[in-house]
């Protein structure tokens, strides 16, 4: 009987299922929804500063400790600055869509010793923390989150200002916020935002912020790679890795002024005119296409 059952199990696809980072904090049963849909983002305006803030908000490297290890960024909980109905991490959630951000799991400094998860708020709605730029309450709140709750490194004032500017720009959508499809363009847009931000920060002499934005761009390239498995995308994966390494090589040069900004502009032009175009051409065959993800839900193992 056991043998017959084993034979009835469908054959495992030749390539092992790709390890999608987001499934580390996704409720069982919601895998496909989390991988294919997202709450809509309706940014009022998108200055270079806001774009830099959004890129940092999406970067696990902004945080430290357990969050960074898991690949969790602000956007893991606040997808597109909104909420995440599918968020579930055993150590910090009691049901999907909740998290305890005063828990010593992420960073000992802020642990209050109680397990008290609450619904992850949609940052497009007014909340407890004033968005008024005069008092700087949002900046202080975000700084405490990064440093105390998530054990991240002290952000520079320009990084904090950018994240706060982004949070202030998050707005509800006029059409009632229907969820939207995830697409390659999400990652391409954030990659370019991060690079623009890195150039802006380097010009202001903020090398630490420029480096944080390089890391943010590299994270987006990694997310693209998740969606282009080999085979058939061996060449694209190699090129993504090479592009990411080229950015890593610039890390030590963030204080070089013109040399750094010229190198980043060159990288960006090469990426946008080359690899990004190829990725776009193949998007329908990639795992951004929900039709190619049908195998995901039953096979993923959730923590
Ligand atoms: C593990 C999930 C999680 C992560 C990661 C996370 N948040 Fe939150 N965030 C929450 C929860 C839950 C609350 C509600 C806390 C409360 O009400 O006490 C919250 C509250 C907030 C608020 C206040 C909203 C209000 O009521 O005015 C802001 C702003 C915010 N988060 C921004 C951020 C930023 C910026 C980051 C990254 C540095 C971040 N969050 C990372 C879960 C998360």
What percent of residues are in strands? under 5%
Heterogens: heme C
* Spatial strand sequence of the major β-sheet: 1-6
CA-atom Rg in angstroms:
20 Å
Kindly report the average pLDDT value: 89
How many DSSP helices? 13
Q: Provide the succession of SSEs.
A: HHEEHHHEEHHEEHHHHHH
Distance between the termini: 30 Å
Unreliable stretches covering 5 or more consecutive residues = 1-14, 299-303
Q: Into which percent range does the helicity of residues fall?
A: 40-55%
In total, how many beta strands? Answer: 6
Helical/strand content category? mainly alpha
The gross shape turns out to be globular
Main sheet summary: 2 strands, antiparallel
Whole-number tally of structural domains: 2
Explain what this protein looks like in three dimensions:
The structure is a single chain. The protein is 48% helix and 4% strand. With 303 residues, the protein is mostly helical. It has 2 domains: 18-182, no CATH class; 183-290, Up-down Bundle (Four Helix Bundle (Hemerythrin (Met), subunit A)). The strands form 3 sheets. A two-stranded antiparallel sheet has the order 1-6. The radius of gyration is 20 Å and the shape is globular. Bound molecules: heme C. The site of heme C (HEC) has 23 residues, from α5, α6 and α7.
């Amino acid at each position: 009987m056991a043998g017959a059952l084993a034979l009835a199990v469908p054959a495992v696809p030749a390539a092992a299922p790709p390890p999608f980072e987001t499934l580390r904090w996704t409720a069982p049963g919601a895998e496909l929804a989390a991988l294919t849909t997202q709450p809509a983002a309706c940014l009022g305006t998108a200055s270079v500063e806001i774009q830099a803030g959004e890129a940092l908000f999406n970067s696990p490297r902004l945080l430290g400790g357990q969050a960074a290890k898991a690949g969790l960024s602000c956007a893991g909980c606040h997808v597109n600055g909104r909420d995440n109905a599918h968020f579930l991490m055993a150590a910090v959630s009691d049901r999907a869509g909740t998290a305890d951000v005063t828990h010593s799991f992420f960073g000992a400094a802020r642990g209050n010793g109680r397990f008290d998860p609450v619904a992850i708020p949609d940052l497009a709605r007014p909340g407890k923390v004033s968005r008024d730029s005069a008092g700087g309450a949002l900046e202080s709140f975000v700084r405490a989150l990064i440093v105390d709750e998530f054990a991240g490194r002290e952000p520079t004032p320009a990084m904090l200002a950018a994240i706060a500017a982004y949070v202030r720009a998050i707005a509800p959508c006029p059409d009632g916020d229907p969820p939207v499809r995830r697409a390659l363009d999400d990652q391409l847009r954030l990659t370019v935002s991060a690079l623009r931000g890195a150039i802006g920060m380097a010009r202001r002499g903020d090398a630490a912020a420029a480096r944080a934005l390089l890391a943010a761009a590299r994270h987006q390239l990694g997310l693209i790679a998740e969606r282009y498995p080999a085979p058939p995308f061996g060449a694209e994966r190699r090129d993504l890795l090479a592009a990411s390494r080229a950015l890593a090589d610039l890390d030590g040069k963030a204080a070089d002024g013109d040399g750094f900004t010229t190198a980043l502009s060159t990288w960006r032009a090469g990426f946008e005119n080359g690899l990004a175009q190829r990725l776009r051409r193949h998007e329908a065959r990639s795992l951004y296409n929900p039709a190619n993800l049908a195998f995901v839900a039953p096979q993923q193992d959730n923590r």
